[in-house]
Amino acid sequence: MAGPRAEKVAAVAEVRERLERTDAAILTEYRGLKVSDLAVLRRALRVAGAEYKIYKNTLVRRATATADRTAMDPFLEGPTAIAFVEGDVAAAAKVLREFARTHPALVVKGSLIGSDLLDARSTTALADLPSREVLLAQIAGALAAPLRQFAGLLKALPQNLAYGISALIDQKRAAGDTADAAAAAGETSAASAGAGGAGSETDAGAAAEADTHEETHEETDSA
Predict the structure, then answer these.
(1) Which position among 37, 53, 100, 170 has the lowest Cβ density within 10 Å, counted as fewest Cβ atoms?
(2) Both 112 and 215 in a single domain?
């Protein structure tokens, strides 16, 4: 029995290498598409980071067996072309969906993303996902928002601290002025009370001296 031809061996090795290297494989049926249509689709997928290849199903099954990708074997029925995607799976799914709208002969069978097998509906739904660039921008924005808030807090902290210290100084100063005023008022009251007492003692002494003078005058008159 003759061994497999060299081109078949090369094709199996190529499929296996692509399956192991790429992020996803989207399987389609292309029956009814013209060669010119396939060329247009290939160019559009290449821009999206995917390579569109046609292989015999028997060769692909040999490759999946050696690359541990046998989960995709149920899709290997009928004419099959595979879009090997490196990077943004959603972008490739968008290209296939848009092309199928004007070329109904293109039918998405399903896809293998990593080790996850998706049916035709789930694979087509990938086209509704944001692109990788948009997702990265959204993630970066979500991460940057708390950092911007924290930076604003740090920037405002010295200013707020200065305001707080200034307010505290004003409060202490106001409290000190009130205490000084109260102390001054107390000293004034004490001084007034002392002056009033001294005046009373002087009046009492004068009255006693007047009484003594009157008594001495009466004694002199009696004599």
Answers:
(1) 170
(2) no
Q: Range of 88's domain?
A: 6-129
Q: Which residue has the tokens 């694979």?
A: 123
The DSSP code for 72 is G
> How are strands ordered across the β-sheet holding 50-54?
50-54, 81-85, 24-29, 107-113, 116-119
Domain count of the fold of the chain: 2
- Classify residue 25: in a domain, yes or no: yes
Strand pairing report for 24-29 and 50-54: unpaired
pLDDT digits (tens, 9 = 90+) for 154-212: 555 455 545 555 665 667 667 666 555 555 555 555 544 454 444 444 444 444 444 54
Q: What is the dihedral of CA 65, 70, 74, 79, to 10 degrees?
A: -50
Q: What is the pTM of this model?
A: 0.58
Residue 55 and residue 145 in contact, taking contact as beta carbons nearer than 8 Å: no
The pair of structure tokens assigned to 104 is: 């109904």
Query: Which residue do the tokens 């595979």 mark?
Result: 82
Could you report the per-residue pLDDT of 59-93, keeping only the tens digit for each? 999 999 988 899 999 999 999 999 999 988 999 99
Tokens 């896809």 identify what position? 111
Write out the DSSP string of 85-128. Answer: ESS-HHHHHHHHHHHHHH-TT-EEEEEEETTEEEEHHHHHHGGG
**Quick one: pLDDT at residue 132?**
57
CB atoms closer than 10 angstroms to residue 21: 9
